[in-house]
Specification:
Chain A has about 80 residues and is mainly alpha-helical. Chain A has three helices and no strands. The longest helix of chain A is centred in the first third of the chain and has 13 residues. In chain B, a hairpin with a 5-residue loop joins strand 21 and strand 22. Classes of the chains: A mainly alpha (about 80), B alpha/beta (about 525).
Chain lengths: ~80, ~525
């Protein structure tokens, strides 16, 4: 799942800007993901990975890195 | 005696030394420590050749040392120029060149941008870069600044007229223009806000806006006037409504000053209900209109807070405000911008610069102590923006044209009706784009909407609209079209309606209409 997340972030969200991230790279402090990108990422998790993410769980704590996101999703 | 912005901090440090001045994430600076760090930075800047009237850039994400940078630069006699850390480097380079910036205050998280800016500009000294940064410029890290011993601000003979900061906004053509504020105009604004909203040393005031957005001046200077605490909202919190709601509660914010977009995000995510907010006593919002139907829902969720619609372009600082009454929102079509603050004179003029009668539409002009000195190096714009009323030919009254269309009600309350430059002609008819937006957003399934005019090959324009539905799954476009048909004359009907998950935003959270138009023009 972590690999799918990283692929999606790199290929769909960051490719245009010529950036790619690894599992533990900071996604938010670096400003890599804007609000549109976060929306797309949540849509990917819900649509392609089939996991429902409650609005109150979409937080800076749960979305800091690809590893942190997949750990959060594993708890769902 | 407080006639310079730096006096706000030196006085607070004397009277409330241990009071928290600024918080960001887990870090807090007391007024004594903020004063010490700013004095240290000022000493370093003066020693590195910064002189009275120079411009020094601030290129930082939010952190407590943004405050040290602001006051340190001004204490060195210079004006601070915030550089948006999310802006394209070409734009920043333009601002750096135009302001002859040679010294840049930054932080290691932005090393990548700094590495490109240094060789492309005249920057010769960095404060706060990471290890090994530079390529031609000297660098001093923040640890060294913090260790520097300094007990007071240098005495430089600045006056209220001295330049305090320049804020760059994107003009409608996309070329950034710099708005110059003096210590006098900024400190007048600090005093107006502190007295209008009764700030005290017990208040904890949000800093939601980035430093290059004029909302931040209330957060910093209004708070410092009353020795209140400024609580920074880190950038990532502005993108996560659940985290923003949690921060407002956990940080016990008493004043939340933000843009309508942030309130709409909180409402849509349904996260306000997750916490309690006993300290929250006022919510201030401005920058764009907010649909009454959404504001009503938000006000019900924060019943203990008073809500103010605040209005004022960067050129004038805040000039009017309106205390919203929940009962009126069931029927209101829009929310007034309210009455002018004390010491503000407002005129509403028609296209011949004649004062219009109450309830008639005209452009708003402002004369107040909070008004800017002018646009940086733009004599052409200054010639247009200032308007002189010569009742006394020796000393004409100076007004700033806001470019905003308003009407004044007989009770002195102003209604905001849109930008003068948002009036377009389509196939011979005059259409107010803001009116198109306002009517579309009354539809229950629409959260936000942006209308813009796309040039067509015949030389006329077509009206295009982009919307965010409140629920994209159940959204029905044909019902929206019916709704618009009932609201607007046929010539004002949008030719195209695009349904989006979010609209492009400027770094200040406003809808980016220039970018929407560019995307539409490509198609």
């Amino acid at each position: 799942m972590q690999d799918q997340l990283i692929d999606f972030i790199n290929n769909e969200l960051l490719a245009e800007r010529g950036i790619s991230i690894g599992p533990d790279d900071e996604l938010l402090l670096s400003g890599h993901l804007d609000s549109m990108a976060i929306f797309q990422l949540v849509a990917f998790i819900e649509g392609d990975l089939g996991l429902a993410v409650p609005a109150q769980d979409i937080t800076v704590e749960n979305f800091r890195t690809a590893t942190v996101i997949s750990q959060y999703l594993a708890r769902l | 005696m407080r006639y310079l912005l730096t006096h706000l901090v030196s006085q607070a440090a004397l009277q409330h030394p241990q009071q928290a001045a600024i918080c960001c994430r887990d870090e807090t600076l007391s007024y004594a420590e903020l004063y010490r760090r700013s004095a240290a930075l000022a000493q370093i800047l003066v020693a590195s050749g910064v002189g009275v009237g120079d411009r020094v850039g601030i290129y930082m994400h939010k952190c407590v040392d943004c405050a040290s940078a602001i006051y340190g630069i001004m204490a060195a006699g210079a004006a601070y120029v915030p550089l948006d850390p999310t802006a394209p480097l070409a734009r920043l380079q333009h601002i750096i060149d135009s302001c002859d910036i040679e010294v840049l205050v930054t932080e290691p998280r932005l090393d990548r941008g700094v590495e490109e800016l240094v060789p492309a500009t005249a920057i010769r000294q960095l404060i706060g870069g990471g290890p090994g940064i530079g390529r031609g410029a000297r660098n001093m890290n923040w640890e060294t600044v913090h260790k520097q011993s300094a007990s007071e601000f240098p005495e430089l003979g600045l006056t209220g007229n001295s330049l305090a900061y320049i804020l760059f906004t994107s003009g409608s053509t996309g070329v950034p223009k710099g708005i110059m504020h003096s210590h006098a105009s900024a400190i007048t604004w600090a005093r107006v806000t502190a007295s209008s909203y009764q700030f005290t040393a017990q208040d904890r005031i949000s800093n939601y806006a980035p430093l290059h957005f004029d909302l931040s001046t209330l957060d910093y200077f209004g708070a410092a006037w009353a020795a209140s605490t400024t609580v920074m909202v880190p950038e990532e919190y502005t993108r996560f409504p659940a985290s923003l709601a949690e921060l407002i509660a956990r940080q016990r914010l008493s004043i939340f000053y933000t843009v309508p977009h942030a309130l709409l995000q909180l409402l849509q995510a349904g996260v306000i209900q997750q916490h309690s907010y006993p300290a929250l006593r006022a919510v201030l919002f401005g920058g764009e209109p907010i649909p009454p139907k959404h504001l009503r829902e938000i006000m019900k969720l924060w019943p203990g807070a008073t809500f103010y619609n605040v209005y004022g372009p960067t050129e004038t600082n805040g000039v009017t405000h309106y205390r919203v009454n929940l009962d009126e929102l069931d029927t209101a079509k829009s929310i007034p911008i309210g009455r002018v603050y004390d010491d503000v004179e407002a005129l509403v003029l028609d296209s011949k610069d004649t004062v219009v009668a109450d309830d008639s539409v005209g452009e708003l002009l402002i004369s107040a102590g909070t008004c800017m000195r002018g646009y940086w190096k733009r004599a052409d714009l200054n010639q247009k923006v200032f308007w002189f009323r010569s009742q006394d030919h020796q000393r004409p009254d100076v007004f700033v044209r806001t470019g905003d269309l308003v009407s004044r009600r007989p009770d002195g309350c102003f209604e905001f009706l849109g930008r003068a430059d948002r009036l377009v002609k389509t196939r011979g008819y005059r259409v107010e784009l803001d009116e198109v937006e306002a009517s579309i957003v009354t539809h229950p399934q629409v959260l936000e909407c942006a209308a813009f005019a796309v040039p067509d090959p015949s030389g006329s324009v077509n009206i295009a609209v982009a919307i965010i539905p409140s629920d994209i799954g159940s959204f029905d476009l044909s019902r929206l079209r019916d709704h618009i048909r009932r609201q607007l004359p046929a010539y004002a009907m949008p030719r195209s309606i695009e349904v989006l998950a979010d609209l492009p935003r400027t770094s200040t959270g406003k809808i980016d209409r220039v970018s929407l138009l560019a995307q539409a023009a490509k198609k």
